[in-house]
Amino acid sequence: MKRSRTFKTILLSSGQIVATLATVLIFSILSRVLSVHDYGTYMQAMLVYSTALPLMTLGLPEAPYYFLARRKDRTRATIYENLLLLTFLGCIFSIGILAGGNKLIATLFENPDLEKALLFIAPYPIFMLPVMSLPACLMAQDRVLPIPVFSVVTKILMLALVFGASMIWGTVWAALMALVVSAAVVFIPGLTLMIQSCSSKIRRPSWSGAKEQLLYSIPLGAAGLVGILSLKLNQIVVSSICTTEEFAIYVNGAIEIPIVGVIMASVRSVLLADFVKMYDEGETKSINDLWRRATISASAILIPVMVFSEVLAPEAIRLLFSAKYVSAVTPFRILLLLLVMRSISLNSVFLATGNSKLVLQRGAVSLTLNVVLSLILVHYFGYIGASIGLVAVMYFWATPYTFFKTARILGVPLREVYPLHSVLKILMVSVLASLVLVSKNWMGHWPDYIVLGLSIGLYFPLVFVMYRVMNISGVPDVRNVFRGKVLKRS
Predict the structure, then answer these.
(1) What is the model's pLDDT at position 2?
(2) Based on the domain organization, do 421 and 338 belong to the same domain?
(3) What is the distance between the alpha carbons of residues 108 and 236, in angstroms, rounded to a whole number?
(4) How many domains does the chain have?
(5) Does 297 lie in the same domain as 205?
(6) Is there a domain that residue 258 lies in?
(7) End of a domain among 184, 218, 241?
(8) Mean residue pLDDT across the chain
(9) Looking at the structure, do residues 272 and 231 belong to the same domain, yes or no?
């Protein structure tokens, strides 16, 4: 049965929420069980893997979206080609680590323990890379339900194994081995799901088909590499210049609030489809109107989350990672300022109007500026400088560039691109409502989870009551963000 876009978005978002929370729980557990140095070593190993991921995958996990719809007579062969390519690339990464890459990276990060840690996770990509094609494969076959189920089961299994190994042995090596075992356990079920979803007469993979997928995917991999480097560069700089312990503190401060990614994924999934249709119909003014209104809806959630988290940052960090990481409050608070800009779907207009090259151009310049700023600021201010550099690049380059190019593409005045007046009203409401959070000072030495729970119950209802009272335009559509609808076309 054909599922509605709203149903699919809700289903995928719910799975993403659970999977993200499981990841945060893993970090929370390891922060408590491991020493600061060992936790930093674990996170450095994960940094190496996540940074190398675009090079390992070359965009191939996205290829089934395109090819399965166009090769209905050889869907199974297409999946086999995709899986073989990803397995091969995973093997190359593992061989590179085993052949001395671990020593080179450990020397760069000045952490001898990282050399051994990377040997432990060397098999990880062989199991994980092929399974990354599962969402695209099943979505292309309109099989949505197994995607969040598989994602949730995978994350819960990983959480259970890492938790168990950490509690029993209490070492970073046990945690890394548990990570690899969890990937190995879900490997066969993941492949089975993908292969069974495809039914076609032609099943034998071919070199020409694999080559076609590879040529299609390489530009996606290049864009992904720029994107991941932009996100991870600050961690790489901190890990290279600062101590492993300081890196551990920084990465905990750089954690993203789970709701942020879920909301923006929901917004993007709807905007992109509607923008393409509007652009084909020549309705550029409608694109700008919808973009503004969607920005207001997302801001109405993310800005209060930002203000609340700024005030309750010490309690949140202690609850998540223990008092050992209370120094992470400073980078956490600085990076929270990005939520104002995260409420904007920066890539939607570029992608919908066929200007995807602008995404790559903006990313390349952002990456260069980030490198320069991070190196300078980390040298003078330590790991806190990396947070300042990232926020500065977003506010003074990436976002203004997006506004300027969007105005030119849509043919609207620059001042009409961003709903500044409405966003400032939302910010004002959020700040005024935060006065109620001074009540945390009256809670004495209550546990952090009680302080946070009571503060949430006081703050967010007050914010949304004030929205209604002040009649801020666009805010009534907030609930549609979670339903995957954002706004109805007028």
Answers:
(1) 46
(2) yes
(3) 10
(4) 2
(5) no
(6) yes
(7) 241
(8) 82
(9) no
**Please, are residues 224 and 212 in contact by the beta-carbon 8 Å criterion?**
no
* Distances from the Cα of 290 to the Cα of 56, 85, 284, angstroms: 37, 40, 10
Residues 458 and 358 placed together within one structural domain of the fold: yes
Last residue of a domain, one of 241, 265, 283: 241
Residue 166 and residue 301 in one domain? no
Which residue, chain included where needed, has tokens 């790489």?
A: 236
Burial of 208 (0-12, 13-18, 19+ CB in 10 A): exposed
Instruction: Assign 3-class secondary structure to the chain.
Output: CCCCHHHHHHHHHHHHHHHHHHHHHHHHHHHHHCCHHHHHHHHHHHHHHHHHHHHHHCCHHHHHHHHHHHCCCCHHHHHHHHHHHHHHHHHHHHHHHHHHHHHHHHHHCCCHHHHHHHHHCCCHHHHHHHHCCHHHHHHHCCCCCHHHHHHHHHHHHHHHHHHHHHHHHCCHHHHHHHHHHHHHHHHHHHHHHHHHHCCCCCCCCCHHHHHHHHHHHHHHHHHHHHHHHHHHHHHHHHHHHCCHHHHHHHHHHCCCCHHHHHHHHHHHHHHHHHHHHHHHCCCHHHHHHHHHHHHHHHHHHHHHHHHHHHHCHHHHHHHHHCHHHHHHHHHHHHHHCCHHHHCCCCCHHHHHCCCHHHHHHHHHHHHHHHHHHHHHHHHHHCHHHHHHHHHHHHHHHHHHHHHHHHHHHHCCCHHHCCCHHHHHHHHHHHHHHHHHHHHHHHCCCCCHHHHHHHHHHHHHHHHHHHHHHHCCCCHHHHHHHHCCCCCCCC
Residue written as tokens 């190196």?
375
Q: Is residue 487 part of a domain?
A: no
Do both 183 and 287 map to the same domain? Answer: no
Quick check: 21 pLDDT over 90?
no
Check whether residue 68 and residue 159 sit in a common domain: yes
Longest alpha-carbon distance in the chain: 70
- pLDDT at residue 482, rounded to an integer: 46
Structure tokens at 476: 């009534």
**Domain housing 290:** 254-482
Q: Residue 466: is its pLDDT beyond 60?
A: yes
**For residue 405, pLDDT beyond 70:** yes
pLDDT digits (tens, 9 = 90+) for 94-135: 999 999 889 999 998 889 999 999 999 889 988 888 888 887
CA 324 centroid distance within chain: 25
One domain for residues 261 and 325? yes
* Within-domain flag for 489: no
The better pLDDT of the pair 376, 290 is held by 376
The verdict on residue 247 lying in a domain is no
